[in-house]
Amino acid sequence: MTDGTDAKAVDRLRQALAKEGAKLKLIAPKIGKMANGLVPDQTVEGAPSVLFDAVVLLPSEAGAKDLTAMAAAVNWVRDAFGHLKAIGFNEAAASLLDKAGIAPDDKLGVIFFEAGRGLESFIATAKKHKVWDREKLVHPPR
Is there a smaller number of Cβ atoms within 10 Å at the N or the C end of the chain? Predict the structure, then answer.
């Protein structure tokens, strides 16, 4: 998340995940209370995506622009993809995915959701723990 992330969207996500018995951790470029009132649990540099079962990218438009210029954030997303994590994202995050060389694709677990649309698909994918259909892209046969 970033300054300007939609706090209501984060709350909807938190509630949906809680119904599944999952917990949401907020990761941001910096620690401390953000302009939107949200408080991150960790920073991008301090909590690599490999630590999480699935990831969601919900930056604001301005925040996404900042993240695309931050090597740690781009690599954070690449690592999530490489470790076969389900990746949910909002419209603003599309530029970050593009910078990371990742194309949105529901079948490969890179799922667009916004305003509640697509959230069920993301959760169903995340419950599988890994997106095995992506394995051949990440580790092609030798």
Answer: C
